[in-house]
């Protein structure tokens, strides 16, 4: 019953849940599910799926009931990944889940499940790495950091950093997704932010950075020099935002890389499976 | 002397300590405090030598009353000396921690004046962090052998993990190279920490608010290749430490000659990195795969095969167990298949509940088929065209790029020289050649 139709949804998780609803109501599987800003053209009719809070709530409530609470969390995380065509993968996963019940979470060898699990693994790994590789700078008592992740990790980083610095005010700006996590004691928000300019570092901040660079340089045991090992643990795409690799005196971070991985979603979408 | 000089000297002096993990505790910051810890540990960066940097690893001071021959900080060594004040070090830690450079502090020290005084200084630093800053991040403290028991206890309440370095794998080596330390003086604090942790566990059951003593457990490290001790001896020692002292980790550090001494390998000798790697592999087999030291090595084979990892080696010597049916084999046996790790086993166990697995499926579950294919069957069938004899498997595994890699890193010609003082112990050349000849 794979339909020759493209769903166009509003880009929100609720919107995607409405697509799932639509797919069941019309007894069809869309050829693709695309967010509104996805400019690619395909030779298939398109249907606008309007976000309907009521439908979304029905689907949202049914997931923990029919497929289990674990699956509900899993799908939410899958929505944050950078998997091309993630929307359709999630839709297929949910359809499989409604049919199979909670055991779908264990069907790791199934292609639909496998693709999504891999993507979520990548998301989790990137989140974990960024918990370590993220670097704050202090400006007038507040902390600010910039990151360039491939997945949308801010919602997953938030609990970690809020539990770590409960009394600080801080901002984490995601250059690739144009969003920022803002925290002040006991209040968190993720807001869209197109451009965040950080001020010049003051004397104290410069000293802290210099101390850290000195520490980083000194801590290597030269007799064991092994840059390949370092790269495999810490891929170079993270270095751009890390203090120890920004040697220039002023300017807190290296400039954004031109190849924004957020654009990957705009690459021609190929519906392989 | 400014902070930069101090940091440089005291980092330089501490960096040969390998442990830099921040695992074992889960904790959020208290209200009004700063700092949390995650049980899995977090690496904050990786040094150019590929080692994880998780903690600010420094010495309180590198002035030392001892004269251990292998150590850069020994009394008789001409090197610049420095000393942090507790306040200075606490401020530096917080400054780094706020910027998310580190996960916490790894504090060790040379023995200044006497062990008790040194321990006092460390306690003062940790006290400032924990009580004044209400710091909830990770702290790893080195127990100073010879310090008073009450001081060790105080340190254990302030720190998350403690360690006493066993330094060398045998008593003879220790008395030769570290004349001021004895086996007893090292094992005593280790035993005290173990007893403290046990006592604390029962106390916690009785009184909920008992302060936790060394919640992330204790670890130790020893040097590999400074003395003629064999892998068999080292691994047995490690196993004993895990079993009898309840250690969380034993670290192995390939000895890198930093000082000229007739008792030690010459300066410029390359560190035995492959040997260290093999020991870590075996260590993992002990802790997560249900192997025992006696299974991996025995008095006839005292050293690891440089060309095949310990798990593969075991499998090749126990071909009667294989091939194993993936869809039916129990967990303990699956863990013994080369190419299947702990995560792989977990996924197989989950996935085979709903479907019968074939080789394509195994690949999706993250199994390294290149290795595992020789040891497993799926639905009763092997990969077609594979010869499943010990020799053919060995040849197939050795023909991979690892062979080149290993032979490049391993300079066997130098090995007897390096150990000449003790007579030709260490990896047998003949043995290696025999392996290559197959």
UniProtKB/TrEMBL annotation, chain A:
Coiled coil (UniProt feature): none
Segments of this protein annotated with the region Disordered: 250-273
Source species, domain of life: Bacteria
DUF4130 domain ranges (all copies): 85-244
Classification via Pfam families: DUF4130
Compositional bias segments (type: Polar residues): 255-267
NCBIfam families given in the database record: SAM_7_link_chp
Name this protein carries in UniProt: DUF4130 domain-containing protein
Organism in which the protein naturally occurs: Caproicibacter fermentans
Top-level taxonomy: Bacteria, Bacillati, Bacillota, Clostridia, Eubacteriales
From TrEMBL, chain B:
Gene3D superfamilies with a match to the protein in the record: Aldolase class I
Keyword annotations from UniProtKB, A to Z: Iron, Iron-sulfur, Metal-binding, S-adenosyl-L-methionine
InterPro entries: Aldolase_TIM, DNA_rSAM_put, Endo/Exo/Phosphatase_dom_1, rSAM, rSAM_sf, RuvA_2-like
SUPFAM superfamilies in the record: Radical SAM enzymes, RuvA domain 2-like
Protein's UniProt keywords contain Iron-sulfur: yes
Keyword Zinc tagged: no
Residue spans crossing the bilayer: none
Top-level division of the source organism's lineage: Bacteria
GO molecular function: catalytic activity; iron-sulfur cluster binding; metal ion binding
Protein name per the record: DNA modification/repair radical SAM protein
Organism of origin: Caproicibacter fermentans
């Amino acid at each position: 019953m794979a339909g020759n139709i493209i769903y166009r949804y509003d880009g929100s998780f609720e919107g995607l849940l409405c697509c799932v609803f639509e797919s069941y109501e019309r007894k069809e599987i869309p050829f693709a599910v695309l967010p509104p800003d996805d400019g690619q053209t395909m030779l298939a009719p398109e249907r606008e799926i309007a976000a309907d809070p009521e439908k979304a709530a029905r689907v949202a409530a049914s997931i923990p009931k029919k497929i289990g609470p674990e699956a509900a969390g899993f799908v939410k995380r899958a929505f944050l990944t950078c998997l091309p065509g993630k929307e359709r993968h999630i839709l297929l996963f949910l359809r499989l889940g409604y049919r199979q019940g909670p055991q779908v979470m264990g069907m790791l060898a199934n292609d639909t499940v496998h693709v999504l699990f891999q993507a979520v693994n990548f998301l989790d790994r990137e989140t974990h790495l960024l918990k370590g590789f993220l670097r704050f700078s202090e400006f007038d008592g507040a902390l600010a950091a910039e990151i360039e992740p491939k997945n949308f990790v801010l919602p997953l980083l938030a609990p970690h950093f809020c539990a770590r610095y409960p009394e600080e005010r801080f901002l984490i700006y995601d250059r690739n997704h144009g969003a920022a996590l803002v925290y002040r004691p006991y209040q968190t928000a993720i807001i869209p932010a197109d451009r965040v300019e950080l001020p010049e570092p003051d004397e104290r901040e410069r000293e802290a950075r210099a101390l850290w660079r000195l520490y980083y340089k000194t801590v290597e045991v030269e007799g064991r020099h092994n840059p390949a090992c370092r790269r495999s643990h810490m891929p170079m795409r993270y270095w751009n935002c890390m203090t120890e690799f920004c040697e220039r005196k002023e300017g807190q971070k290296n400039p954004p890389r031109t190849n924004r991985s957020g654009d990957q979603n705009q690459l021609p979408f190929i519906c392989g499976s | 002397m400014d902070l930069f000089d101090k940091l440089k000297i005291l980092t330089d002096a501490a960096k040969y300590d390998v442990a830099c993990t921040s695992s074992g505790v889960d904790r959020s910051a208290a209200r009004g405090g700063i700092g949390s810890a995650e049980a899995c540990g977090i690496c904050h960066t990786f040094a150019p030598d590929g080692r994880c940097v998780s903690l600010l690893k420094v010495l309180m001071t590198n002035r030392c009353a001892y004269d251990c021959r292998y150590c850069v900080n020994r009394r008789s060594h001409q090197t610049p000396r420095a000393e942090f004040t507790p306040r200075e070090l606490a401020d530096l830690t917080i400054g780094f921690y706020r910027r998310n450079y580190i996960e916490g502090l790894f504090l060790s020290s040379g023995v200044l004046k006497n062990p008790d005084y040194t321990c006092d200084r460390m306690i003062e630093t940790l006290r400032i962090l924990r009580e004044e800053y209400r710091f909830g991040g990770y702290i790893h403290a080195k127990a100073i052998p010879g310090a008073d028991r009450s001081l060790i206890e105080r340190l254990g309440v302030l720190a998350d993990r403690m360690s006493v370095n066993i330094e060398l794998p045998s008593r003879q080596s220790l008395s030769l190279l570290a004349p001021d330390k004895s086996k007893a003086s090292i094992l005593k604090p280790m035993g005290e920490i173990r007893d403290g942790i046990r006592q604390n566990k029962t106390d916690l059951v009785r009184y909920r608010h008992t302060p936790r003593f060394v919640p992330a457990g204790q670890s130790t490290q020893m040097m590999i290749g400074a003395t003629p001790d064999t892998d068999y001896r080292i691994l047995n020692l490690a196993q004993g430490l895990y079993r009898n002292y309840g250690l969380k980790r034993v670290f192995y550090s390939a000895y890198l000659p930093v000082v000229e001494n007739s008792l030690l390998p010459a300066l410029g000798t390359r560190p035995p990195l492959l040997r260290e790697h093999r020991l870590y592999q075996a260590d993992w087999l002990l802790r997560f795969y249900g192997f025992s030291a006696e299974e991996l090595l025995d008095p006839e084979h005292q050293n690891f095969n440089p060309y095949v990892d310990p798990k593969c080696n075991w499998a090749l010597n126990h071909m009667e167990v294989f091939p194993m049916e993936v869809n039916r084999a129990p967990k303990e046996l699956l863990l013994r298949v080369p190419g299947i790790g702990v995560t792989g086993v977990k996924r197989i166990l989950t996935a085979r509940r709903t479907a019968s697995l074939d080789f394509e499926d195994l690949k999706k579950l993250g199994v390294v088929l290149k290795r595992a294919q020789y040891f497993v069957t799926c639905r009763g069938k092997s990969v077609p065209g594979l010869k499943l004899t010990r020799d053919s498997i060995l040849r197939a595994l050795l023909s991979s790029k690892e062979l080149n890699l290993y032979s490049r890193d391993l300079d066997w010609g130098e090995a007897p020289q390096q150990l000449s003082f003790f007579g030709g112990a260490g990896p047998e050349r003949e043995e290696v050649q025999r392996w290559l000849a197959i």
